[in-house]
Amino acid sequence: MTGKDVLAQGFRFGVFLTSAALVWMAGFTAWRAVAAPVAVRPANAAASATCVVDTNVGGRVTAVTAGDVLQLEDGRTIRLMGIEAVIADRAGQDVERAKLAQSAREALAKLVQGHVVSLGVGGRQTDRKGRLIAQVFLGKEWVQGAMVGAGLARVRTYSGNDACAIPLLQREQSARVKGNGLWRHPEFAVRQAETVLARQNGFTIVEGRVRSVSAIKSVVYLNFGEDYRSDFTVAITSKSFARFGQSDADAIALFKALEGRTIRVRGYVRDRNGPMIYADHPAQIEDLPLQPAPLARTSSESQ
Questions:
Q1: Rounded to an integer, what distance in angstroms lies between the CA atom of residue 136 and that of residue 13?
Q2: 176-195 confidence digits (pLDDT tens)
Q3: What is the C-alpha separation between 191 and 25, in angstroms, rounded?
Q4: Can you list the domains of the chain with their CATH numbers?
């Protein structure tokens, strides 16, 4: 997906060529301040990373069924917003994964079971199973922050349910650096863009350098390699642009600003002319501070 590809396909965002240059510097600053891919801060910043949301009394916790699910005495089931705890594999063959899932459930139960918790909700309020999606607090203790900081869960946000993503990602980074909990398990390791496989086929965190940014019809592509038919790509469709910028031109200019930068992106890896993640909200993309040397691609890494 080079510049030639874009021209060949008749790039429909006619405003881009003129507007991008005008909004480049101002837009990049605005993106980082408002709807930007969140910047990863040093691990020592995690200690003060907290969540500030309006809360209401939720109720007393009577049961914890998973490391990210609890039940209240009024019968409601709460799914912890913005995080995903480990679950045991269905076949029961991964002993280490089963231990991590059990540790997460036990830690959450020890923290909240029998106590009255407060809830912060916003955006989409229930998941497909009818569970209430909420930030959970025990007094001043932020439950999601505690679980992620201990390496008992990782950050997984959805469009409309990404409140407090930045402090969660800060705590996740700290836990990963320390090798806490799930970060010792190879399945949850951050994958490098040049080696991630289309058959990864699951929620994955991928890190790499954006080699080029192109737009074809109604989709912007962040390309991590020279061959879009085999290399890792992030796709953002036009229906999501409003979450990244005040206009389509702003959003496209901001995506273009990622060219040459190292980012970390999370989402479901799908096989779409090679491995691809669709990003539909800013919390999926972390703009990392360090720029590595250009990645050398070998024939063995071709998909």
A1: 42
A2: 999 999 999 998 999 999 99
A3: 31
A4: 3-39+187-301 (2.40.50.140), 52-163 (2.40.50.90)
